[in-house]
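Ticket #4471: structure export looks truncated?
Reporter: QA, pipeline team
Priority: medium

Steps to reproduce: submit the single chain below to the structure queue and open the exported record.
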Amino acid sequence: MSDEHTTPNNEELENINNEGNNEASEQNELATSDTKITHLGGMYQEWFLDYASYVILERAVPHINDGLKPVQRRILHAMRRMDDGRYNKVANIIGFTMQFHPHGDASIGDALVQLGQKDLLIDTQGNWGNVATGDGAAAPRYIEARLTKFAQEVVFNPKTTNWKLSYDGRNKEPITLPVKFPLLLTQGVEGIAVGLASKILPHNFNELIDASIAYLQDKPFEIFPDFATGGMIDVSRYNDGARGGAVKVRAKIIKEDNKTLNICDIPFGKNTSSLIESIIKANDKGKIKIKKIDDNTSDKVEILIHLPNNVSTDKTIDALYAFTDCEISISPNCCLIEDNKPKFVGVSSVLRQNTDHTVELLTRELEIRLSELEEAWHKSSLEKIFIEERMYKEAGYENSESKDEAIDFLDKCFEPWKPKFRREINRDDLTALFEIKMGRILKFNSDKANDYIKGLDDEMVEVKNHLENIIPYTIAYYKHIKKTFGKDHPRMTEIRSFENIEASKVVVKNEKLFINRDEGFMGTSLRKDEFVCDCSDIDDIILFYKDGRYLITKVSDKAFVGKGIMHLAVFKKSDTRTIYNVAYRDGKKGTTYVKRFAVTGITRDKEYNVTKGTVGSDVLYFSANPNGEAEVLKVILRPKARVRNLVFDYDMAELAIKGRGAMGNILSKYEVQKVALRKKGVSTLGGRKIWFDKDVLRLNSDSRGDYLGEFHADDSILVITKSGEFYHTSFDLTNHYEDDIHIIEKFNPGKVWSVAFYDGDQKYFYIKRFQLEASNKKQSFIGEHAKSYLVRITEVDYPRLEVKFGGDDKERENVIVEVDEFIGVKSFKARGKRLSTYQVSKINELEPIRQKEVEPEPEKPTQEDDEDQMNLFEQQ
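Actual output as written to the record:
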């Protein structure tokens, strides 16, 4: 069997080619006219934009109306459909939610646990984890949940909900839930989308309601974050939660004793594990010194930090804030979906829009209710007339041959009553009358029907009144929500102003500084050379040279700083108490000058000069005085004809403290051979002037807050608390104080205090007078009983108290008590003298009649006064 191959001739080949060209031409024309060719790069661009839009709108960013992400909204919708008042297994809730959410069960479970941990919308049962410790929840099959009463009352209303089909078209789901509350600001939210992120911090439940009411009343309002983990927050740069703002959040640290600190609240976004890890890292790096850490956290946070001996608790608290996660900065970014677009706004704007939305929802609910009442009134009135007038027994009705004929007859029967109805009687209304059963007609009670219709009338009047006064109605609604649920949501985070902590002031001296003067090296690794001082690895060092140069440089392991160093020490920025006393010769044979100055701040690694900068200048005497001491110098002149006194003393206290660039005063017009120390001096700066800033609860020397006085080495500060305790502290600027301070002042051991208090043990009011003793421990002057409390405390010399009576003795006249005549001065530990055996309702302090003659107090100094006195900031 053979195959026959036919070879086409040239004409046939040409025809075949022409046909192929025609077909290709037709295909190109078809593609050009009906299809659009998209290159691969264009496909990626379109797909990426579609994906980005989907992530922004459908996954990561909440909607402004209900404050929920899609997964959260679908979880709540699913729980509402499943709700029967009992708990449901979380695994069942996740499975039910998957009808609406086109993603895996893990994402739904995580979102559900986060909602449950917020303790607002979901009532949980079982192990749902711990936000404070970071422990996760148990498996979904072991834990249960149901909607809270708050969620059922505030979040849902099918009548005002706008619906859409679910992703597979089998179910309906809400576009947004009709939330009548600023839920977005209460819960907060954090989401990362494509190209943008949203971070809205949670706010306090009751404060948001108060702000909404204030907005409806056209009053100003301001809202700040509040975290379930407690702690403290500085909102000075909150910027209304918009982009560019920031808040500082601190853990709350309490001093248990001189060797133990207790962290009882943690910053938002942190847990005990991560916080302890940051503390251990700071300790390993030498930033702080701790002995051990005990984590006793259960339902409440309790992290005990035990300190070694001779470690300051106050400085350790500052170091914890400076070097660990005990203080963090959070940058809010209020981004949300509005009109299907992402929008950046402030939290105040969100609150106003949520409040306006609540007004709209309440208006729609009232309108729907009014429509329902009108419909019920219409049908009840029809039924009442139909039965009372026995229309069902009319001959025309009974003899009607068809239903249409019977409806037409009924319509004519209602003619006399039609003007009383509020809408037309339509065919459906008449048809419904046919369906009334005879048993119901026989049981009809005209009086009950009248009462029911009257009740509908009264309710319609009430609803119309609410609609006409929708703003007062909304305010009443908010007040109802606050009264019902507000008690469960107190403010957890304390709003405070934080003082900026300079790390160099609180870091532990974890290094030792050495110097090799012969070779000109300085550093912390030169352990075989001369020891200078303890320092930290972030300190700056100030160096003074014999030729008058000085500079500031960073601490390092080893650095070449040159020879001729006569002084080096740790530099303290803005230190106005350290005064340098210098005698220098200008040039090789020039005049000798003396000067006193402070170095408060210069550029690092830039050379300066204490002399005039003349070549050959030499420093003849130098001293650094931490408290502005001024010594007496012995000056020896070079022998010269007709100069009798070749040796004389010079008191540096006669020199004014000037700027570091000042030339100084001439020591002698003759050539000086030598300058030496004759006698050590005392401080010329006087005591240190201290102020107390109530906003940050810290001492300062910058004239901020209340002036406490001028303090010398032996002085102390007295603190009296609102709970009737007192203690003393030093005037160290690193001291920490609690926010229960009633009185803080410079301690005066001779001052007499007069106190009125309630003794919980004896159940009577007492008065006592006493002088306080110096004590670093807290001691009570009203007794240790838990129910004792302080009523009045005064330092006036002749106090007068007015006693008002109550209860069964409220008719008794008020009594005036001259305290100094009533009781003498005794120990603060004495019980005192009982004020009265009658029931006391109030104790007021009156103006004293007698006044002790005292010298007028000097005018309180200001920072400018200090600067004028010391001339520290004079610059040439």
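Status: closed, not a bug. The export was complete when the record was re-opened. Leaving a note from the reviewer for reference: The domain at 350-488 is CATH 1.10.268 (Topoisomerase; domain 3).
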